[in-house]
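Q: What changes when zinc ion is included in the input?
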Amino acid sequence: MSAHRKRTSCRICGGPRLRPFLDFGAMPLANSFLRSEEEFAGEQAFPMEMCFCEDCSLVQLRDVIDPEVLFRNYVYVTGTSETVREHNRRYAETVVKLLDLKPGDLVVEAASNDGSLLRCFQEYGVRTLGVEPAANIAEKARAAGVETVNEFFSLRLARQLKAHYGAARAVLANNVLAHVDSPVEFAGGAAHLLEGSGRFIAEVQYVGDLVSNLEYDIAYHEHLCYFSAATLVRLSEAAGMWVTGIERHPVQGGSLRLYAAPQRDRADHAPEALAFVREEEEAGLNRWECYEELARKAADHRAALRNLLERFHEEGKVVAGYGAPAKGNTLLNYCGIGPQLLPFTVDRNPLKVGSFTPGMHIPVLPVSAIEERRPDYVLILAWNFADEIMRQQTDYRIRGGKFVIPVPQPRIV
Ligand SMILES: [Zn+2]
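A: The predicted holo structure follows.
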């Protein structure tokens, strides 16, 4: 089987009217960091095109990469960021209170990564079970005391888990719903695994923030869907669930948290969720024109960022990157920013240090390289952690170093 194929139907409504608006061209996989220069020649790139469903308004990539290629050896480890740790603590507290979870109740997390969120639930005596397809990361979670099944979450797996562990009070899915090619089946699996009074709780990046903050770099092959409140409601319906709430959260550049129940306790979805959908309609988020304009703005942004970095280069200034996130690779590849304009980037994740970024082949160095090489500017590729990064780099700033935050418009701070 080829690693890449193109869909012809929408992932939620199944309709055929997928209209492309932003073509990234051939892109490497955003998390396929290269270990050495010998790997450059054999590197693969795949088409990547964002589309709008003219039937249900779901924004999605038409391109599908075999999940075995994408996720079996994933390098993103959630435990590494302070912002995420704090988010996890509050998340667990909220869910424990909301569902009045008692010791012995079961909480299952799909794509549980290194188990850092489930560990926060364990502090309340709740039983936890992780489901994580990346073997290396599932192993880390087990070592930290979080029972973890090394599998992709699916309806079939949900049946097995329910038979073995019993029904769950909560099924959590953070930053994974957008990764699956069949989100309706995935959410259906969660519904099956839940007790009647349980909740499916899913966090996804919000397409409304993508549009208003021009965060087009959150597009990469792993992110197949870009949800709105409206499309989350449609998804829940398609999976046989009722929406009890949709909240906005600032994480990951702006996210939505969906709460859905397998059992209906009122006539319709929660009125706040429906009001949210109406607001989106008023803002035009359900219309083609919104995305046509997004594509135009992305092209202008690319020109502006390149001009800025070229000017620095002509002036003899050194620019380093901060972070080697997947979205940084979308940004660098789409804007054509290579080692000439950005000679290195740094990252706190030891799994990435010593490697080269996909496509642009920028060396990833440890964070101490900022101190040692003293670049004139630091381009924050991990812009969702900009505040945290700038706080950690006060010495650099005191010595006159400046930061460039790339979105929504490149700005020097
Ligand atoms: Zn659709």
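Observations recorded in class: Residues 10, 12-13, 15, 53, 55-56, 58 surround zinc ion (CB under 6 Å).
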